[in-house]
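Exercise 7b. Backbone tokens:
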């Protein structure tokens, strides 16, 4: 029998991890959001919909075929809505990670960081984005081999009990997009 942490313990651990991750970023140039320029519409509380416990149905494109699997997440908002910490778990894949979203209040942009549970390293730079008309879009510059690409993460179809996050890649400077990951989230009722 394994001891699972209580909700209070999990929340405390997530808050500590978020604080440690944020401190580790001090001194990094977070003002550079790459060549992609998101709308400056971010506000405290934008990620309040995400707080809680979730079951997730994943569809991920792998070798030109859609791989489907289940996951779960626990998310808490902290600092009066200017931070959101997510613990993602995919037991069947023995995978876990942490999403850390921090609002740059002056710039009105959200930084979205990721920590893979296998290496514990915070991604840098983060992707930057915000919500417009109920849809959150985060674009980041990346490379595929030696070719520049844009990776887009989108939060949409948001209700009180469900939402969708999906990711797409553009290899032609945003003219066309190839969707490669879809996550349908359903709130766990307590």
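Sequence design result:
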């Amino acid at each position: 029998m394994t001891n699972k942490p209580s909700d209070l313990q999990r929340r405390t651990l997530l808050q500590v991890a978020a604080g440690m991750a944020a401190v580790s970023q001090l001194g990094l140039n977070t003002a550079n959001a790459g060549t992609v320029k998101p709308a400056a519409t971010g506000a405290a509380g934008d990620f309040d919909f995400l707080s809680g416990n979730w079951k997730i149905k994943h569809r991920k494109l792998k070798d030109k075929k859609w791989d489907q699997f289940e996951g779960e997440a626990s998310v808490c908002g902290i600092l009066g809505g200017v931070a959101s910490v997510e613990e993602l778990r995919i037991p069947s894949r023995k995978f876990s990670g942490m999403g850390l979203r921090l609002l740059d209040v002056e710039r009105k942009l959200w930084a979205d960081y990721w920590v893979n549970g296998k290496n514990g390293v915070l991604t840098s730079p983060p992707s930057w984005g915000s919500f417009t008309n109920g849809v959150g879009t985060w674009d980041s510059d990346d490379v595929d081999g030696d070719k520049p690409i844009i990776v887009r993460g989108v939060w949409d179809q948001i209700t009180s009990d469900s939402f969708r996050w999906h990711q797409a890649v553009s290899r032609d400077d945003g003219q066309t997009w190839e969707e490669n990951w879809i996550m349908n989230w359903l709130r766990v009722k307590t």
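Instructor comment: The two ends are 22 Å apart (CA to CA). Residues 23-34 have pLDDT under 50 and may be disordered.
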